[in-house]
Amino acid sequence: MPAKPAPIKKSAKKAAEKPAEPEPAPDAPTAEAPPAEAPPTVAVPAETVPSVDAPEPEAAAAEAPVVEEGAAAEAPATGHTEEAAPPTDTPAEAAPAEAAPVEEPPKPRTPPPPAVPTSAPQSLTVEDVNDTSVTLKWRSPETTGDSGLNGYTVEYCKEGSSEWVVANTELTVSNRFVIKDLTTGDMLNIRVVAVNAGGCSEPATLAESVPVREIVDRPKIRMPRFLRSRYIKQVGEQINLVIPFCGKPKPVISWTKDGQPLDTKKVNIRNSDKDSILFIRKAEREDSGNYEISVKVDSFEDKAIIIIQIVDLPGPPASVKMVDTWGFNAALEWTPPKDNGNTEITGYTIQKADKKTGEWFTVLEHYHRLNATVSDLIMGNVYTFRIFAENKVGISEAAAVTKEVAHIQKTGIVYKPPEYKEHDYSEAPKFTAALNDRAATVGYTTKLLCAVRGSPKPKIEWLKNQMIIGDDPKYRQINNQGVCSLEIRKPCSFDGGVYTCRAKNALGEATVACKLEVKQVIIQDDKEKK
Known about the structure:
Helices cover 7% and strands 40% of the residues. It starts with 9 loop residues before the first helix and ends with a helix.
């Protein structure tokens, strides 16, 4: 509730009835700035409100001290400070009469959680060493916290001393650093610490001391080409692998198999300054694995992995059964072998045996599927089947045999051979090569030729001037595979004329003719020439 206004003296009342004093200009230096927060408004009686017709500033200033003394005298008696004071000549003197509101103190802010240090740097290794410096490299921490990563501090300590020396005056943000100005021959323990707003991480320390000296020849393994891929040997064979390398001073050689030390009872290792020899006298399936060779010179190391696979003959298929039998066929199914010989199965061999003879015959070889149909079985026989597995080494020693047998039942089927219509080759005679006109010389044997075809084989007749020659010894008639010839021995001028060859059979006949001219050679005597 608003406080009850205090009584005002007459002098104050008169001052209120006077005209109000004009407000000072903003730049006037006579008044101080009012408080930032205005006091709460209090209801004041109407008689205390200054009138619009206020007296001049000089008149108001004359009575101002009386009003302040009265107000100050009565204010403690009433106990109220929120009452508005009458206007006075100086606002700065009237301010103490008003009580400022009590402000509550600000609540303190919740402090942020403390920063968390990063985790340690990872995989700290030596990249290079010479007689005055060591080059390091590492990987960033796994976790860096909310505040991020400010950088790294690299420290080193000489062997035999407990004092760690900071190598970098300022934090380095790189994951690589070179420690310079070192003394040749010192053995240094080195560590790297990650730093952020939460502090320093756990140090990442090299496992071994680093000697400060020049490396003449870094270790390097020269892996033979045939060992860069999988090296395969059969069970019982000898393994002798020579791995050359280089490095000075003399490197330290170590071997592991699948991350574990080698069994010296089975594997022999012989090392020299230039190579390392892995020797197994008689390979077994258990010798298969990843063999890793490490060549180390001080803090430098080179590694290589050799994959050795020892293979053997596979086992037989796990099971085989006869699915169905019909007609002259039998259907089989089987499952892959449990032991594949440490290499993939390349196929299967299926064999059959007749119960009467008991002899096995191969039906299918290098067969890749897990089911097959055996055909062309003999009717009335009983068959048993067996299956071998194959891999790159060979065929399994044992086979999976079917428990059931295939009975090829006899049927009442009568075989009827197919009827083929015989082709009719009958043909009337036809000359394929005709007779040509000829000119012969008296006394010189000549021959007439032609060719004919026909079925059945035609009968050949020769005619001279439409007269059948017959068996005249002057002529020789020959018919060989359809080629007909008439030989005229030592013809005379009377043997000229038209010769005809006639061929005929049951289907018809054909003829062909030519003209023969016989010429006489005339020889004149020398006397007649003269």
